[in-house]
């Protein structure tokens, strides 16, 4: 997975494809490895972190019926937290675009998902008044 830091988009795509391919035969093992790698490399640049997160998403989507309930719950929570963290980090530079995307998850009459609320709150904290004072409409 260290090759995800390669700047060549073809190498990055090959890593993504390899993780997805391996995830077809051993989804829990790949998900656990990706999770462990992300935990060990918490300073990994976000573009490279996204490659691994996208591979994890694909493995989960393609193998959801095969995953053990406890593994699925843990991995999905970790994946959602990591994705939220990526949005917050990107929001430190592109707050308007990230806020627009997060706000699309607020639907009338539907309680927003926990991680949508957490992302919204963390964006507000990390960007101070710029995010917190932005109108919702």
UniProtKB/TrEMBL annotation:
Pfam family, one: HEAT_MROH2B_1st
Highest taxon above the source species: Eukaryota
Matches recorded under InterPro entries: Maestro_heat-like_prot, MROH2B-like_N_HEAT
Ranges annotated as spanning the membrane: none
All residue ranges annotated as the MROH2B-like N-terminal HEAT-repeats domain in the record: 19-127
A GO term from the CC aspect: cytoplasm
Classification via PANTHER family: MAESTRO HEAT-LIKE REPEAT-CONTAINING PROTEIN FAMILY MEMBER 1, MAESTRO-RELATED HEAT DOMAIN-CONTAINING
Full protein name: MROH1 protein
Source organism of this protein record: Podargus strigoides
Designated gene of the protein: Mroh1_1
